Amino acid sequence: MNQLKNVAFIGNSLPRRCGIATFTTDLQHAVSKSPAHVATAIVVMTDHGHVYDYPPEVRLSIADENRDDYIRAADVLNSGNFDVACLQHEFGIFGGENGEHIVALLSRLKMPVVTTLHTVLAEPSSGQRRVLNKIIDLSDKLVVMAEKGRTLLSEVYHVAAEKIEVVPHGIPDMPFLEPAVSKAGLGFDGRSVILTFGLLSPNKGIEVMIDAMPLILKSRPDAVYVILGATHPNLVRDEGEAYRESLVTRVNDLGIEDSVVFLDRFVDKATLLEFISMCDVYATPYLNEAQMTSGTLAYSFGLGKAVVSTPYWHAQELLANDRGVLVPFGDPTAIGREIASLLTNDARRDVMRRQAYQTSRPMTWQKTAERYLALFSQVAIQNLARRPAASKNVVMQKAPPLPELQLGYFMSMCDDTGLFQHAVYSVPDRAHGYCVDDNARALLLSVALNEPGERLLPEALPSRFASFVQHAWNPDEKHFRNFMGFDRRWLEDKGSQDSHGRTLWALGECARGDTSPSRRAWATALFAQALPTVEGFGSPRAWAFALLGLDGYCAASPQDVLAQHIRSSLADRMMDIFHRVERTGWTWFEENLSYDNARLCQALIVTGLGAARPDYVAAGLKSLRWLLTIQTGPEGLFRPIGTDGFTDRTGEVKHFDQQPLEASATIAACHAAWRVGHDITWKKEAAKAFAWFLGSNDLSLPVVDLETGSCRDGLHPTRLNENRGGESVVCYLLGLLEYRKLSRASGHPSTFGQLRALTA
């Protein structure tokens, strides 16, 4: 904990009048006063049309509806050397649809995030779920104040158990006092006082308590119900004081105006504690059980008050085992009967008060601050080890050299039809013919060679690969065929979903980057024809390949609204399965790992960059970091998932056979990740994956022949697979080009990469 130096709180602050402002201020003060000597600051949301005289602890104010303010705040926090950011989340205090603007801030933060969820909805709207899922993804830890919150996060939002902490709402550390002294000071001497405090709004159930007063007065004519608190500012803005006036009218109609006192003010903490101290019974007659946290309940309970409450979630837990009294929602008779019983039975009331006080001692703000500081320290330490680090015994101590690009073997694997699918050793195998998968990859290679400084393929080759793709299109099935015999006869009417998606990927890149304007136009037209088919697919890899193609196509045809819609739909599907499947120790999209795994991460990252969606980027980075840990051997070498049955989350990782396409995909995904924030770690991870080709692998044998550019089909447990098929050689060449481009790329982390530029 001594290593923790600076913590930023993001929420509201006094003197703004709301529960989040009170909580954030109290928590910040408690942490700053702890023996840990941690410096603190607050970043606040300021609601439209208001100006507040914030204390010095407030470092920055965000106009809640101004998205640019959130982005600027992230810059300030990143430059402020904060170890941890602690977000106080409640729907309604952040701008954008369902408070989405806060994601623009969180997604840019370099430090770990601990989020306190003041509300966890059991039945969120689709928009609320989407925003909260983003916040969950961007948070290292989630804090709730009741066990019900833990249950909902697990069952409704599928959050891993180790990510959730329950820390009760903090309370002032006050002595156990009798009410008489405070009553005299506040003018209620000789009265039996019932208190409700907090911002006034219809969901608080004040009218139920008012209706209960005649029954209470029959037993205790000296009883007085004190309603302490200003009307909620949002209610005043929308309706004025109509609600308060309706309550006053209700009191007058019942003829109990001498027994109900309205104190229309927002009091400071010292005054509030005086009022709580003087009450005999505290009442929280809320109308809805979906109340995860109540600061008013916590404070009254912590000061040793007898509490009568409706059974909302927080009250159910805090008042269990006779620590308070629970009554049905909206039942004035029940609440009146129970309060009257407590006011006429001093012994029972005193036992309840003392039990509440003793139970609440671990909830003091000092103890709460200790719990939060322990969490902050934990995530700060974990953040240092978040990205995969090489073992001390890594064979490759520095980035591998950049080999010369050799295309001779690749061209020997092509004939006048296209790229052969397989080889026997280095001899093209005519028996297995061709496939659209490999020819689409070859088309990708031809486009990649259009980069400045690279050597173009002879024009006949990209034309041949494009012709193969065109011939593979089956307009009747709206689908690409895949396998073709050496005699040029198709072996199927339509290929797999994955081959269709991979072909779209090649077409999208061709539409964006081919040197031939005519071929770009061809690729654009065929892509548009074939794209809608993907909407019916269920394969996450097909979605990922299509998204990679859409990255190129949408750049070339930004006016295509349908393509943008499908891009969002596919990315949302990937996000959905990611949230549903992710579990402790399994940060992935499926229940198993199979082939081309890193393409799923890459697809979300590039889509997030292209569509200005930080949530997509965050999920892509998160899954890629996890995948890299799975694909790192004990000596720090790149060890891709093997094809021997692949790997599911309940079994051990399959290490063989290892294939070139995994290394190539990982290099490309790391390049995409590097573009987000220019983090040098991604270059290092790409270097490890590329070094696999050169011999930094489990067999310490080179997979590629640098003189010819041929690439073996992979690693068996004890030997190389000496066959050198079309997929392997193209994957190596694509990996080499990607690695060369990444190695030569420059940039400074303060630019925050393309994502910042697109979303600022």
List keywords for this structure.
24 strands, 760 residues, alpha/beta, single chain, six-stranded parallel sheet, elongated
Task: Give an overview in words.
- Mean pLDDT is 89; it is low at 385-397 and 747-760.
- The chain has 760 residues and is an alpha/beta fold.
- 50% of the residues are buried.
- The protein is built from 28 helices and 24 strands.
- It is 47% helix and 13% strand.
- Strand 6, helix 5 (147-155) and strand 7 form a beta-alpha-beta unit.
- A seven-stranded parallel β-sheet has the order 3-2-1-4-5-6-7, sandwiched between helices. It has a six-stranded parallel β-sheet with strand order 10-9-8-11-12-13, sandwiched between helices.
What structural class do the secondary elements suggest? alpha/beta
Number of helices: 28
How many strand units?
24
Question: Cα-atom Rg, whole angstroms?
Answer: 32 Å
| Silhouette | elongated
Q: How much of the residues is beta strand, in percent? A: 5-15%
Uncertain runs are: 385-397, 747-760
| Strand order in the largest sheet | 3-2-1-4-5-6-7
Report the helical percentage: 40-55%
Mind sketching the topology for me?
Elements lengths: L5 E6 L7 H14 L6 E8 L11 E6 L3 H12 L5 E6 L11 H6 L6 E5 L8 H13 L2 E4 L2 H9 L8 E3 L13 H7 L5 E6 L8 H14 L3 E6 L4 H7 L2 H13 L5 E4 L5 H10 L2 E4 L10 H8 L3 E4 L3 H6 L6 E2 L5 H12 L2 H14 L5 H20 L23 H5 L7 E5 L2 E9 H13 L11 H13 E2 L4 E2 L2 E2 L12 H17 L3 H14 L9 H17 L4 H21 L10 E2 L4 H14 L2 H17 L16 E2 L11 H18 L2 H15 L9 E2 L4 E2 L2 E2 L4 E2 L4 H19 L8 H7 L1
Parallel strand pairs: 1-2, 1-4, 2-3, 4-5, 5-6, 6-7, 8-9, 8-11, 9-10, 11-12, 12-13
Antiparallel strand pairs: 14-15, 15-18, 16-17, 19-20, 21-22, 23-24
Helix pairs in contact: 1-15, 4-24, 6-10, 7-9, 7-13, 17-18, 17-19, 17-27, 19-20, 19-21, 21-22, 21-23, 22-23, 23-24, 23-25, 24-25, 25-26, 25-27, 25-28, 26-27
